[in-house]
Amino acid sequence: MNSPNRRSLEVDFFLGIVLLVIAVDHISGSVLSRFTLHSYVFCDSAEVLVFLGGYASVAAYTTLAANRSHGAARRRFLKRT
After folding, report:
1. Range of the domain at 42
2. Are 18 and 45 spatial neighbours (Cβ–Cβ below 8 Å)?
3. Is 13 inside any structural domain?
4. 63 DSSP 8-state letter
5. Cβ neighbours of residue 25 under 8 Å, at least 6 residues apart?
6. What distance in Å separates the CA atoms of residue 9 and residue 3, rounded to the nearest whole number?
7. Is residue 1 part of a domain?
8. pLDDT tens string 14-32
9. Is the pLDDT of residue 50 over 90?
């Protein structure tokens, strides 16, 4: 069954991983939090979550613009904002 509104499983997978890492980061005294992103760089998993959310939005509106028109994508974007 091919659905026209197919989601990217890869993006959903990484969004789930990032949400788990954010939860681990917020547990004080967690041994696992020593191995998460905020221990090695100046950013943390929240920035990755925002990036993946933006990527998913761009992918959705680009697909809508390709299948229908740029005007339809623009109208849906303005309606959602």
Report:
1. 9-80
2. yes
3. yes
4. H
5. 33, 36, 38, 44, 45
6. 14
7. no
8. 999 999 988 888 887 888 8
9. yes
81 DSSP assignment: -
Half-sphere exposure in the Cβ direction for 64 (13 Å, CA): 15
Q: What is the CA radius of gyration of the chain?
A: 17
Task: Using alpha carbons, select from 37, 13, 42, 16 the residue that is nearest to residue 25.
Answer: 37
Residue 75 lies inside a defined structural domain of this protein: yes
CB atoms within 10 A of CB 45: 19
In a domain, 3, yes or no: no
**Chain Cα centroid distance, residue 38:** 18
**What's the CA gap between 47 and 41, in Å, rounded?**
12
Contact in structure between 52 and 36 (CB atoms under 8 Å): no
- Domain count of the fold of the chain: 1
pTM over 0.85: no
Q: Side-chain half-sphere of 13: how many Cα atoms within 13 Å?
A: 3
Six-digit token string for 70: 């740029």
